[in-house]
């Protein structure tokens, strides 16, 4: 059984068909990239499968669970986490507090525990804080637990958002343009970090990305979307020499190796 199995996915906005009858599958512990020109429907695809855009046509099965019309919180409860193209942190909260927000799905304390300040509440709070500190260290932000999120450099804010997503303990991590705004050195570090997440933590990773060097350097499989339609799927070598992909990017199907 595929970890994520999407069949006939279609999402419209009025008369605009943003995603059109897409079939998509990925296996456990894969790194899969979704690429395509600007406006191709990639982020819409992410938003549908992660619960941000309901009322779609088609089926989404994740870890054996039907995600049809579930909201983002319920999708996250099945351990699908995501980041966003435009960073969505809580800027006036501490870095460690941002990560703690991502842990609420795994906490069992209730109003009774809060009112009476029970041992269970204290234990969970202590364990959550320790785990948040571990994640800060894991993404390279050791010693910055008392920094406001808004005071971190841009690249570190990207890492903090990933740390918050990892707090959900995801089976599948969705990364929407993780290298956007990064310089070449930071992009190379991001590539290695994404591979590290898969290899060390065992998470599957699905990403949207425009940096073709990064995509070709880390992907097990690449899916290409154009005008809401899947036009190609395969290994990096298959994709970079695919005439339909080259045509989508350059408008010329005579050029080879265009997306390398």
TrEMBL record:
<dbReference type="InterPro" id="IPR003593">
    <property type="entry name" value="AAA+_ATPase"/>
</dbReference>
<dbReference type="GO" id="GO:0005304">
    <property type="term" value="F:L-valine transmembrane transporter activity"/>
</dbReference>
<dbReference type="Pfam" id="PF12399">
    <property type="entry name" value="BCA_ABC_TP_C"/>
</dbReference>
<keyword id="KW-0547">Nucleotide-binding</keyword>
<dbReference type="GO" id="GO:0015808">
    <property type="term" value="P:L-alanine transport"/>
</dbReference>
<dbReference type="Pfam" id="PF00005">
    <property type="entry name" value="ABC_tran"/>
</dbReference>
<dbReference type="InterPro" id="IPR003439">
    <property type="entry name" value="ABC_transporter-like_ATP-bd"/>
</dbReference>
<dbReference type="GO" id="GO:0005886">
    <property type="term" value="C:plasma membrane"/>
</dbReference>
<feature type="domain" description="ABC transporter">
    <location>
        <begin position="4"/>
        <end position="252"/>
    </location>
</feature>
<dbReference type="InterPro" id="IPR027417">
    <property type="entry name" value="P-loop_NTPase"/>
</dbReference>
<dbReference type="GO" id="GO:1903806">
    <property type="term" value="P:L-isoleucine import across plasma membrane"/>
</dbReference>
<dbReference type="InterPro" id="IPR051120">
    <property type="entry name" value="ABC_AA/LPS_Transport"/>
</dbReference>
<dbReference type="GO" id="GO:0005524">
    <property type="term" value="F:ATP binding"/>
</dbReference>
<dbReference type="GO" id="GO:0016887">
    <property type="term" value="F:ATP hydrolysis activity"/>
</dbReference>
<dbReference type="GO" id="GO:0015188">
    <property type="term" value="F:L-isoleucine transmembrane transporter activity"/>
</dbReference>
<dbReference type="GO" id="GO:0015192">
    <property type="term" value="F:L-phenylalanine transmembrane transporter activity"/>
</dbReference>
<protein>
    <submittedName>
        <fullName>Amino acid/amide ABC transporter ATP-binding protein 1, HAAT family</fullName>
    </submittedName>
</protein>
<dbReference type="GO" id="GO:1903805">
    <property type="term" value="P:L-valine import across plasma membrane"/>
</dbReference>
<dbReference type="InterPro" id="IPR032823">
    <property type="entry name" value="BCA_ABC_TP_C"/>
</dbReference>
<keyword id="KW-0067">ATP-binding</keyword>
<keyword id="KW-0813">Transport</keyword>
<dbReference type="GO" id="GO:0042941">
    <property type="term" value="P:D-alanine transmembrane transport"/>
</dbReference>
């Amino acid at each position: 059984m595929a970890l994520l199995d999407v069949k006939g996915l279609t999402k419209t906005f009025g008369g605009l068909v943003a995603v059109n009858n897409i079939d998509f599958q990925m296996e456990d512990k894969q790194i899969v990239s979704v690429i395509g020109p600007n406006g191709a429907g990639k982020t819409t695809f992410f938003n549908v499968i992660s619960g941000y855009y309901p009322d779609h046509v088609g089926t989404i099965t994740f870890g054996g669970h039907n995600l049809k019309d579930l909201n983002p919180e319920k999708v996250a409860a099945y351990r699908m986490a995501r980041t966003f193209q435009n960073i969505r942190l809580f800027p006036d909260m501490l870095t460690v507090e941002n990560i703690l927000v991502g842990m609420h799905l795994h906490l069992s304390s209730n109003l009774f525990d809060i009112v009476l300040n029970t041992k269970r509440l204290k234990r969970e709070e202590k364990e959550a804080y320790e785990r948040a500190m571990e994640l800060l260290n894991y993404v390279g932000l050791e010693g910055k637990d008392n920094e406001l999120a808004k005071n971190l450099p841009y690249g570190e804010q990207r890492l903090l958002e990933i740390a918050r997503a990892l707090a959900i303990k995801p089976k599948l991590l969705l990364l929407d343009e993780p290298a956007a705004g990064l310089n070449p050195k930071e992009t190379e570090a991001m590539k290695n970090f994404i591979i590290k997440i898969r290899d060390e933590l065992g998470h599957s990773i699905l990403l949207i990305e425009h940096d073709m060097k990064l995509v070709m350097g880390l992907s097990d499989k690449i899916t290409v979307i154009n005008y809401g339609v899947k036009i190609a799927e395969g290994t990096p070598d298959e994709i970079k020499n695919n005439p339909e992909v080259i045509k989508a990017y350059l408008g010329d199907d005579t050029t080879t190796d265009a997306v390398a």
